[in-house]
Amino acid sequence: MTPASSGELVMPQNGANHSVSVISSASLTLFESVVEHFQVLDSTQTYIRFSMLNWITSSDSIARLMCVSSEHQTQGRGKGDRHWFSDPGSKCLALSFGFVVPENRLGDSAILTQLLALSVVRSFPDVEVRIKWPNDLVIEGKKVGGILAELEPVGECAYVMIIGVGLNLDINPVLLHSVKTRWPAGSLQAFCRPGVTIDLFETRDCIIDIFQGFVSIFLRNNPQEISVLTSEISHCQFRYNEEIRFCSGDSIIRGVHRGLDPRGGLLISTTSSFSVSTFYSGELVLDSVPYFDSPCFDTESA
Fold it and tell me: Measured between alpha carbons, how far is 283 from 84 in angstroms, rounded to an integer?
């Protein structure tokens, strides 16, 4: 698997567990990406949070995108109090980003989760990865990745967006079947063509390159560009234009998945009201899938 990635990459080695990269893209003017990689790290989200809050005082911080990746996490976190189970013998990728979001863009920041998900979808053009709203990546109903987004206030008029993705690149099938999960777990490698091997660093660099461009579009706030991306994201949604069962608070809503609005909200048309409703929280559930409450293999990057 060789995803294409543009830009110049320089990677001096800073020790067996740690390396630093600088990725500059001539086609993009809003960001220079600084990438740190660890073989083992407690949590990419935690590392980004502390690094960004220290970094934010620099004059060029608004024009830089900080990225941290890891092959194995010892304290990975998911949504809420869930944890990401990362087996040292498996090939996983945890990749987190940190960047400044102006206060006037906070109301639209939910779309960033979908834009990171689309970055993964585009990085695997030969595999039918789908986005299960709001933050999961699935193939044929099996969860292969998840996204976690958090905001931290800095000063009076800006916030730091800390957003990460965790991917099951190549996991032993026996291990996958041995763990109870909220959603059936899968491995990206299992869905690749014979003879194709996923490369962790090529995958990482491709996701970074694509997401860097998406963040630039988000900050430019051009409605036409956002509309085009929203349409693409909608067509990549799991169960798009199909009947779904949706959990919102204590209620179960049945309707048809109608894609997303420009802010990342889920659109559902219900037969009872003959109208389309927008949701910004909740999650899809399937009648045929047991709804376990185990935190294991809840693949969020943190």
Answer: 18
pLDDT for residue 180: 66
Full-prediction pTM beyond 0.70?
yes
In this predicted structure, what is the pLDDT of residue 52?
Answer: 82
The residue among 278, 246, 283, 286 whose CA lies nearest residue 260 is 278
Q: Which residues of the chain have pLDDT under 50?
A: 2-15, 25-29, 59, 80, 289-302
Q: State the Cα angle at 300 between 52 and 156, rounded to 5°.
A: 30
Domains, in order of start, for the chain: 8-235 (3.30.930.10), 243-285 (2.30.30.100)
pLDDT for 30-57, tens place per residue?
Answer: 567 789 999 999 999 999 988 887 776 5
Closest CA to 228 of 241, 238, 214, 210: 214
Cα–Cα distances (Å) from 151 to 112, 159, 161, 163, in that order, read 12, 6, 5, 8
- For residue 292 the two structure tokens come to 């376990």
CA dihedral angle for residue 277, residue 278, residue 281, residue 282, rounded to 10 degrees: 40
Half-sphere exposure at residue 302, Cβ-oriented, CA atoms within 13 angstroms: 20
Cα angle value 187/233/52 (rounded, 5°): 75
> What are the φ and ψ backbone dihedral angles of 54, each rounded to 5 degrees?
-80, -30
